[in-house]
Amino acid sequence: MGRGKRIMSAVAVVGAGIVGASVAYHLARRGVSVTLLDRGPSPATGVTGNSFAWIGGCGGDWPGGARDLRESVGADYRRLETELADVTVRWTGSLTWTETPDGHESRLEAGRFWVGGSDIATLEPNLRNPPERAVHTPSDGGVDPVAVTNALVDAARTLGARVIHNSAVTSLAMSGQRVEGVWSATGFHAAETVVLTAGTDTPTLCEPLLAGVPVATPPVCLVRLAAPAGLITSIVACPDFEVREVRDGELLLTLPMAAGTAATSSEQVERNALRQVRTAFRGSDSCRFLGHRVCRPPMPAQGPVIGFAERDRSVYVALMHSGMTLAPTVGRLIADELVTGRPAPELRRCRPRRLAP
Description:
Strands 1, 2, 8, 9, 10, 11, 19 and 20 form an eight-stranded mixed β-sheet that branches. Strands 5-6-4-14-15-16-13-17 form an eight-stranded mixed β-sheet. The relative contact order is 0.21. By secondary structure, the chain is of the alpha+beta class. A hairpin with a 2-residue loop joins strand 9 (169-175) and strand 10 (178-184). It is 24% helix and 27% strand.
């Protein structure tokens, strides 16, 4: 492939999922010249579009540096709601429990509370067999992942970012030991810094610089159901599934799948999903199956991997779970690091191990 005409950009962001969209938006807000490249025909066509999109919800599991970012999640989403008209969060709170509830109340983090009996009945009056107690997190919410990503990309474009779709990045462009841009389906794109927010493609793209980033990709089955409006009032996470109302009359349900499981037929998924919901909730007999998808979100083994992959600052990695929860906070912090050159203390425990202090 010939190089053709070079188009200079201060920062090239690879991947227009929720994390890349947030990085591009926050950089553009700071006046940085940004090119956002994505393999799909529109934003959020990969893992982001198939996200359960539970904001704040990690079931209490915030590995590695994710824990240091948790307190900022709610504030950053509320900030986006004020900045971008098309960002709307359903702040419903969540109710979670496991088969063996933890008996040590002191282990709950701030903002999460043990509830039982009448409190559970008030939060989820249609539960057939409520647990003795559960964890209630009032600050949790849910979003439409595609709508939020589109809002961020559109705002970045309005602020001057260049957005290029159908432009799968194939490799980093190296000049000696330095990354000087990327090669993609639309040619060469020069950049002072490349930010890799390409999800499961990130370890492959940065492998020459950062070999062996451990990332699991467990399969998750997402099911959409038509349901009576208000059947479920919060985000419910029980041992067998997670479910939330994404809009009036529509539920989104996650069903676990064993790693390596063969593709499950639509009929099997339908039977399982309807059985789970009808067993769990009164008034659910009229629920109807609308469809399902299986996705494989990237889950770095030791928590988020966020930071420069080279000491010359030419390539930056942002790989995490859950991207939907963390993206507004991470986008803000990455933009601040790139603009000011000052490390963000909140990202200290997220650094790529090879370059960690």
